[in-house]
Design brief:
heterodimer; A: 4-stranded antiparallel sheet; 11 strands; globular; B: 7-stranded mixed sheet; about 0% helix
Chain lengths: ~120, ~110
């Protein structure tokens, strides 16, 4: 089965570090970009960044650049999202996604076709 | 950055209604527009990609149209399982989601 399996919920204190994971299976993990999407409580979806596990090429949303680090270990088909110093405002559900594409005569249309179930991160003193 | 807006932000409709949701980009994005559906407590699900292409397994009552800056998601006959929040997303320059449109029961 093609799927992204995310690590479990986390409860942390402000200032602590955290690394959550997303393991791909059922497809060639190194062939597709993996992204991260934040959803704060009761709010909409925000794209954070994306990584190509094949060579770890990474792009960030300007809103999240410098705030988080995205990485991947292709040997175990896993992508990561990490924080060095959490804030209460980092409390949210975090989804990993696979970027897929539609090729229309050489024009590539990108979209997120596969989603993990989400990792809930709660930051509270 | 490309900004996305959606209207309305919420709507109430009845089973069987035709529902239309609009998405607008702050600059032309050609057909680089996707639509997702999210139900409470669940991960979003892809409905439409490249503005009008129906994702495999998605019912044909869902359709998308538009290009440039203005796009539409239409549900031809609303079903009970369609009550959810719908998000548009541009993929012309990295990715940006719209703020969402919540569809609830009238």
């Amino acid at each position: 089965e093609v799927q992204l399996v995310q690590s479990g919920a986390e409860v942390k204190k402000p200032g602590e570090s955290l690394k959550i994971s997303c393991k791909g299976s059922g497809y060639s993990f190194t062939s597709y970009w993996i992204g991260w999407v934040r959803q704060m409580p009761g709010k909409g979806l925000e794209w954070m960044g994306i990584i190509y596990p094949g060579d770890s090429d990474t792009r960030y949303s300007p809103s999240f650049q410098g705030q988080v680090t995205i990485s991947a270990d292709k040997s175990i088909s896993t992508a990561y999202l990490q924080w060095s110093s959490l804030k209460a405002s980092d409390t949210a559900m975090y989804y990993c996604v696979r970027r897929y594409y539609y090729d229309s005569s050489g024009y590539y249309y990108w979209y997120f076709d596969l989603w993990g179930r989400g990792t809930l991160v709660t930051v509270s003193s | 950055d490309i900004q996305m807006t959606q209207s309305p932000s919420s709507l109430s409709a009845s089973v069987g209604d035709r529902v239309t949701i609009t998405c607008r980009a702050s600059q032309s994005i050609s057909s680089y527009l996707n639509w997702y559906q999210q139900k409470p407590g669940k991960a979003p699900k892809l409905l439409i990609y490249a503005a009008s292409s129906l994702q495999s397994g998605v019912p044909s009552r869902f359709s998308g149209s538009g290009s440039g800056t203005d796009f539409t998601l239409t549900i031809s006959s609303l079903q009970p399982e369609d009550f959810a929040t719908y998000y548009c997303q541009q993929s012309y320059s990295l990715f940006t989601f719209g703020p969402g449109t919540k569809v609830d029961i009238k």
